[in-house]
Protein 1
Amino acid sequence: MTSKRATVLAIDIGAESGRTMAVHFDGSALQLEEVHRFPNYALTVNGVLQWDILHLWREVQAGIERSRALTAGPPASLAVDTWGVDFGLLDRDGNLIGNPVCYRDSRTEGMLDAVLKRVPKAEVFAQTGIQFMAINTLYQMMSLVERGSPQLETAARFLTVPDLLNFWLSGAQVCEFSNATTTQMLNPFTRSWAGELLDTLAIPLDLFPEVVQPGTRLGTFDDIPVIAPACHDTGSAVAGVPAQTENFAYISSGTWSLVGLEEAHPFVNGAALAVNATNEGGVYGTFRLLKNVMGLWLLQQCRSTWEQQGRSYTYPELVSLAEAAKPLRSFVDPNDDRFLPPGDHPAHIQAFCQQSGQPLPQSDADIARCVFESLALAYRDVLQELQTLTGRPLEVIHVVGGGSRNRLLNQLTADATGIPVLAGPSEATVIGNALVQLISLGELANLEEGRQLVAGMGEMERFEPKGQEAWHSVKMPAIQ
């Protein structure tokens, strides 16, 4: 019989910041307590944009140490999730060969084409089921192959960023399934590495370790069990969705917006390839059929540019400005390549509007409004594509993550899609991470029981569609 009382540590690291949260379970409810918060950043060293992974390792240890003062005894377990696609290489002694390179680094330029010269696009998709994006690990690895990197000659093991932190915590050199799928190097049907693809591209197959499922116990750190959650932060966020129906969509809203459906099997066919859909691994045998949309990164970069120009805004102030701006004037495609690197995004937005023959957003308020409405439009188009693929009706859209607090964007999403939006919880990633730990510990029977707990936390706000007739004629603009 289980205790039905446990505290677990969820360590969640995103592209801008990380935090350690204690999640307390008393047998009937979850309570979250922040233990430690820290920045994350990429640094350019010798012309390469890379992560300060040793800084993250120090902060992970600091959070674990601080948690001991908040709990009676050590936590029942701990688990780490991070962003996807980036990785480190280890030598045969287990030493890291250089910092993990940031997915926004320029080394992947031209690498998608380099891969497709060797393997047809349809074959890459058939072997991986993953959306074609230049940031994917496959193209990062191809850049090492193309330039004959000495790292490949030295390397003995490949680990994604959360797997690297798990190795330092537990000693286990494995890759967790949900994060491994983001690499575009894993076969979703065999749930093992796509050996034929890797061999064709001269990417050494022997670099890649065993793939383990979410909920696997990896080892211990200071006598605390280390459990693999869905190590991809979106995988954990979707696990934390308080779904009460099978016919739901989700938007994990943050720097990126991950828009999708939870499915029992991957959709790997010509129709999925045609819309560039992706089949990322989920928890407990599920797949996340989704598309990546460049999310609130656009607003973050606009805010940074305005601050450099002497105009500082809080995010709530930007929402208020956008609410007062004229609606439905100008749109951008959030996934246009110009928006991927850091830069002057207000100027990029204006240039896109000019090149697509739309009114030029002039004021900061107009630009902020353009960002929010463009995201809502992109969400609508993605969900329509996924509904066509699956034939599934949608009753509700769950918006989770930090972006769920943006009431304007939530309402615009309901209006654009014509589907009610349930916003919250904002801490879905931490909650999903904790639910997998609690299931692994035997404190919860299954994910359904966990989602019932999340639904009872009372954080959700409902947004009903209104004014959607104005969106019927709106289409994603294209560059002329």
Protein 2
Amino acid sequence: MADSNSLASGHSVALLWFRSRDDVTPFINDTAVRIRAGIMLAIPIFMAFTLWDIVFGSRWIVTGEVIKDTFELDFDNRILYMVEAVRRTYDYTVQTWLLFYALFEMLAGMSVKTSYLSPTIWLSTLLARRARPVWKPLAPKRFAWTIGASMISVCLAFFHPEKLAAAVNFIFRNEMLPTTEQYLPRWLPLVMVWVCLGFMWLEAVLGYCLGCEVHALLVKLGVFKEECEACNNLDFGQPR
């Protein structure tokens, strides 16, 4: 087992994320996890503003310079005007790449081997090298990141419904989903992003892993059968 003092002094940045490569049950440094959550917080914040604009923003762009009064009123007694406008379209290229990167980060952190591919894990461990490590079992964090990956997948499906529909229809050999219209509720990804933002804020700022709490509850209910004793007796208030 690696010595905590040598880890904290920065002699082995590669081991600052994990307590030891030889642990049967992997333990990760919760201090670095919180720093990583703070770094990754930028993505859901950006996505929240994007989705807010999509859901609640105007669907039309006025292209003409002349706005004419029609001298008519709608049912709410508002004046109707005649303008030249086009239907607003969106380019989700930047959002898509960000979501794929966030999905990669969520999946990479779930395994000891793949975690070394994550730039944010290396950065967060580097920033945490002088802080005292707080060791927590990996299994609850893996469950929390699975929730995050699921939310990211929902957002990707919202941005590219035709691709998901084509894949589902091909797999089931049936026209189960339409390929020419948005079949997901417009509010769904916005809710997912704000929930994800809340989860990550709790982790980064308060050090409270809500996904870990759900994991602990499911273990107590017998849904999960964890071999890890620490996973079955999580104490989020005391460092390990």
